[in-house]
Design a protein that fits this description.
By secondary structure, this protein is α+β, with helices and mostly antiparallel strands. The protein contains 9 helices and 15 strands. Helix 2 (16-30) packs antiparallel against helix 3 (38-54). The longest helix is centred in the first third of the chain and has 17 residues, at 38-54. One of its GO terms (molecular function) is ATP binding.
Length: 361
């Protein structure tokens, strides 16, 4: 009887994970559906039996102590069960479908801020695999069709009888003539070269909802590439990139902007009109408004992506101090300073809230 550790090519202090990895590697090389050689099948029997013993802690302990092999010998049925456990089953039986699912596709779409606020329908062009119009995915030239493989007789598998310690064993492998499809195409389509699909540029209509933001990825089911043999489309993924706006910014679903207010309007108060994405709106500037004051206009922000309604428009006030004055204007400010001579420049105790600016609305 061969040594189980030698059969798997591992040391006697190998971990459970090392035992499993060693068996997986050898099983892929020696399984009868992969390697029909008689010597490979006999070795496969040995490594599988070795794994049965060493993967069981009690059986391994008994084996290491020099006891009898607790499992004895196993037949190919047991080997198949273990192989199926590791690899999800042996080779497929019967012909496989020529049609395969297509690959997913990824595109990048740039949006303007206005398109994000209200949502937009866009048409984009992509280069992708599409169904061949000449053969409609059959892969055969017009007027012809696939025929049954005369080697495997349509089964897609070739069976071989090999001798082993257990006697004659039947193994099967994909047919090399039809590659497991069970059919061959005598006259492939000239346009797609027997692929059932061609590369082409096509237009896709995107319905982009309001409220999306940069970094968001949208999934469009079955809008990706057509598969080999006219198989079903993969999915299309759309990465969203929102361009910066010259005036407005975004914080969550709120829009932000800065409004410069002349000093005299800040002192006396004013009523101003500004252009927004909803058209012209009027805002009231209270007398004595300070730089950093936030005016809030309800419902003029970005539409919520997963809820009804919209965010707000946040307007930050920036009082503009004149830097160029003529002599008459300077005299007026000196007169004003005389009236307010009790006011001095000084440091004040501050807080994060005050430092960030007063809020209104």
């Amino acid at each position: 009887m061969s040594d189980h550790y030698e059969a798997l090519g591992i040391s006697r202090d190998a971990s459970d994970d090392q035992i499993k990895k060693a068996y997986r590697k050898l099983a892929r090389e020696l399984h009868p559906d992969v390697n029909p050689a008689p010597e490979a099948q006999e070795r496969f029997k040995l490594v599988t039996h070795a794994y049965e013993v060493l993967s069981d802690s009690d059986a391994r302990r008994q084996y290491d102590m020099g006891g009898n092999d607790p499992f004895g010998s196993a037949g190919f049925g047991g080997f198949g069960d273990i192989f199926d456990t590791f690899f999800g089953g042996g080779s497929s039986r019967g012909p496989k479908s020529r049609a395969e699912r297509g690959q997913d596709a990824l595109i990048r779409v740039e949006l303007l801020l206005a398109e994000v606020i209200f949502g937009v329908n866009k048409s984009v062009e992509i280069d992708t695999a599409v169904l061949c119009e000449s053969c409609r995915g059959t892969c055969a030239r017009a007027g012809t069709s696939a025929v049954t493989c005369d080697i495997c007789r349509g089964s897609g598998q070739i069976q071989r009888q090999v001798r082993s310690l257990l006697g004659n064993v039947m193994t099967s492998a994909p047919c090399g003539t039809c590659r497991g499809y069970g059919q061959v195409i005598p006259e492939p389509c000239l346009d797609c070269r027997g692929q059932g699909r061609v590369r082409a540029r096509r237009t896709i209509d995107l319905n982009i909802p309001a409220g999306v933001e940069s970094g968001l990825r949208l999934q469009l089911a079955a809008q990706g590439e057509v598969g080999f043999g006219g198989g079903p489309n993969g999915d299309l993924y759309v990465d969203i990139v929102v361009k910066d706006h010259d005036v407005f910014g975004r914080q969550g679903d709120d829009l932000t902007c800065v409004l410069e207010v002349p000093l005299h309007d800040a002192v006396l108060g004013a009523r101003s009109k500004i252009e927004s994405f909803d058209g012209e709106i009027e805002i009231d500037i209270d007398p004595g408004v300070q730089t950093g004051t936030i005016l809030s206009v309800k419902g003029k922000g970005v539409t919520h992506l997963r809820a009804s309604g919209r965010g707000d428009l946040k307007i930050s006030i920036q009082v503009v101090t004149p830097s160029k004055l003529d002599s008459k204007q300077k005299e007026l400010f000196r007169a004003l300073a005389g009236f307010r001579k009790d006011e001095k420049i000084k440091l004040v105790t501050t807080s994060h809230g005050r430092f960030a600016g007063k809020r209104k609305g």
